[in-house]
C-alpha cells in the first residue's frame, strides 16, 4: 500500500454496492453527524487503530478511507497499513473525500435541517484560537507586554488539547446556537 493509492468516488460506489468494499469515514463524530456517505462507518482518525482491531472487517474486502478532502484519508491508509490491518486486503483513499463524492453527484446523508456542510467544530476552534493568538501578538507588538503572554497561553492550551483530546473551546463552541 502506498500513500497515493486512491479510488474515484464512482469506482468506490461500484465496490460498495457489490459488497466488495468497506468505507471508513475518519472525520470527527460531529463532521460525520452533519453529513456522511450512506455506507460509511465512523472511525475517527485518532482512534482508528483500536477501532479497526475491534470491527472484524472481512479480509477479502477493499478498505476505503474517506475524510473531507482526502488528507486524513491518506493518513488513515498509512495507519492501517503500519498497524497490520492491511494484510490480505487492498487499502484505498477516496479521491477528494466526501467533497469529491458530493461533486460526483453521489448520495450523502445529511443531518435533519442541514442544507450544506457546516464548519466542523475543530475548524471553528482553529479559527477562534488563531484569531486570539493574532490579536494577542499584535497587542504585544504594539507595546502591550502581556499580549505575548496571552498568545503563549493560547498556544499552550491548543497543544494541551492536542495531547489530551480535551478541548474546552470545542465544548463551548458545540453549545453555540449555530452548532445546534
TrEMBL record:
<feature type="transmembrane region" description="Helical">
    <location>
        <begin position="154"/>
        <end position="174"/>
    </location>
</feature>
<dbReference type="InterPro" id="IPR001763">
    <property type="entry name" value="Rhodanese-like_dom"/>
</dbReference>
<keyword id="KW-0472">Membrane</keyword>
<dbReference type="Pfam" id="PF00581">
    <property type="entry name" value="Rhodanese"/>
</dbReference>
<keyword id="KW-1133">Transmembrane helix</keyword>
<dbReference type="InterPro" id="IPR050229">
    <property type="entry name" value="GlpE_sulfurtransferase"/>
</dbReference>
<feature type="domain" description="Rhodanese">
    <location>
        <begin position="17"/>
        <end position="110"/>
    </location>
</feature>
<dbReference type="InterPro" id="IPR021309">
    <property type="entry name" value="YgaP-like_TM"/>
</dbReference>
<keyword id="KW-0812">Transmembrane</keyword>
<protein>
    <submittedName>
        <fullName>Rhodanese-like domain-containing protein</fullName>
    </submittedName>
</protein>
<feature type="transmembrane region" description="Helical">
    <location>
        <begin position="127"/>
        <end position="148"/>
    </location>
</feature>
<dbReference type="Pfam" id="PF11127">
    <property type="entry name" value="YgaP-like_TM"/>
</dbReference>
